[in-house]
Design a protein that fits this description.
The chain is mostly helical. The chain has helices at residues 2-33, 37-42, 54-61, 64-96, 101-111, 118-131, 137-163, 167-174, 179-190, 192-208, 211-217, 226-236, 241-273. 79% of the residues lie in helices and 0% in strands.
Length: 276
């Protein structure tokens, strides 16, 4: 009995430490976004006195709305294309790979991209996109769709094989459904947990990504994403910490809201999609 109590105390202690480690940086970021830089340098952990919104007003004056909009557009369209293209490809691959070796090879060829470090292909990709005139937001969306394929395809194929039986296809065909109608009316809605999982994983990555926008969008400051603006803003006003913390809060709150909306589906989707 004493051993069980001790193990529980240890577990809850470790969980408490982990919780503090996760939420303390978020708390301090929000706290310091409402303080003047002078207050931050004097007391980083102190409560704002006075409580001020000047940092957020300054961000609006410096044009954060434009960069927030750029990130929003890029993230939304990237996610839309990911959720439109990859599930369709996964359904085709999962239903055909057992009968045709070519689809097995295609599946393995695509998911092997998970193991390719971005640094290996960073320079060739940047040069290629420049040659095609795609060093812009459209090119960035295309790259996000491309880089999302390996992991998302792996998850979708596993989910379809595990959760959606082939008998669903046969029943739909007997009811007179064509392949496209069957997919969009029956199969696609059944993948909601996996849609939520893929949406969260990729939205977190795309919204916070710094390296790809730096490579493709840094020539034109009007097309900067929010992380690029934060990087250059911090460089320009390095000693003015208040607006910098406020810009971090703007970026955090937005993507945190998306996560809270869809997080209840992510565990079931990940568990089902990684089985096969």
């Amino acid at each position: 009995m004493k051993t069980k109590v001790k193990s529980r105390v240890l577990i809850y202690t470790l969980l408490g430490i982990g919780l503090i480690a996760l939420f303390l940086p978020l708390y301090l970021t929000i706290l310091n976004s409402f303080k003047e830089t002078r207050q931050i340098t004097k007391g980083f952990f102190d409560w704002p006195a006075p409580f001020t919104l000047d940092n957020f007003s300054r961000l609006l004056e410096d044009g954060i709305g434009q960069y927030f909009g750029n990130s929003l557009v890029i993230t939304i369209f990237s996610i839309l294309f990911i959720l439109l293209v990859i599930p369709m490809a996964a359904f085709s691959v999962s239903r055909t790979m057992e009968r045709k070796r070519s689809f097995q090879f295609l599946y393995l060829f695509l998911i092997i991209g998970i193991f390719v470090p971005f640094q290996v292909i960073m320079i060739p990709i940047t040069s290629l996109m420049s040659d095609f005139g795609l060093s812009n937001k459209l090119g960035l969306i295309i790259l996000y769709l491309t880089y999302a394929i390996p992991q998302s395809l792996f998850l979708y194929v596993g989910y379809i094989k595990t959760v959606i039986p082939k008998e669903m296809d046969e029943a739909a065909a007997m009811d007179g459904c064509g392949k496209f109608k069957m997919y969009f009316k029956i199969i696609f809605p059944m993948m909601k947990p996996m849609h939520a999982t893929v949406l969260i994983l990729n939205a977190l990555w795309i919204w916070n990504d710094f390296l790809l926008p730096l490579l493709l969008l840094n020539k034109d400051d009007t097309s900067w994403t929010l992380p690029l603006f934060q990087y250059n803003y911090q460089g320009q006003y390095f000693s003015d910490f208040g607006p910098s913390f406020a810009s971090y809060v703007v970026g955090i709150i937005s993507i945190l809201a998306v996560y809270l909306i869809f997080q209840k589906h992510i565990i079931s989707g990940m568990a089902s999609g990684s089985v096969k």
